[in-house]
Amino acid sequence: MKRFNELSTKPVKDREEEISRYWKEIDLLHESVTSRDENKPFVFYEGPPTANGKPGIHHVMSRTLKDLVCRYKTMEGYQV
């Protein structure tokens, strides 16, 4: 028994458009946001991006961690 479906041989662009259409059909963004309306809020304040210079490779880690925290709190059920 296969655990995962085989990858599609469609070009990536076509697959992306197909997924995007499906997400719009089921109104995924609205559902994701409103499904936690009654839950406890988690607010994450972030400063302006690279206010004192051009972005550098060292910004990747901090931005990744900031994204990770918000996604984790969403999975815990918070309204982020």
What does this molecule look like?
The protein is an all-alpha fold. The protein folds into two domains: 29 residues; 41 residues, no CATH class. It contains three helices and no strands. The chain is extended, with a radius of gyration of 18 Å.
What does the secondary structure layout of this molecule look like, with pairings?
Layout: H1 12-25, H2 28-34, H3 59-75
Give a quick rundown of the structure:
The chain has about 80 residues and is mainly alpha-helical. It contains three helices and no strands.
Shape: extended
Structural class: mainly alpha
End-to-end Cα distance: 38 Å
- Please summarize the sheet with the most strands: none
Q: Give the low-confidence spans.
A: none
Task: Please estimate the helix content.
Answer: 40-55%
Question: What are the salient characteristics of this protein?
Answer:
2 domains; 80 residues; mainly alpha; 0% strand
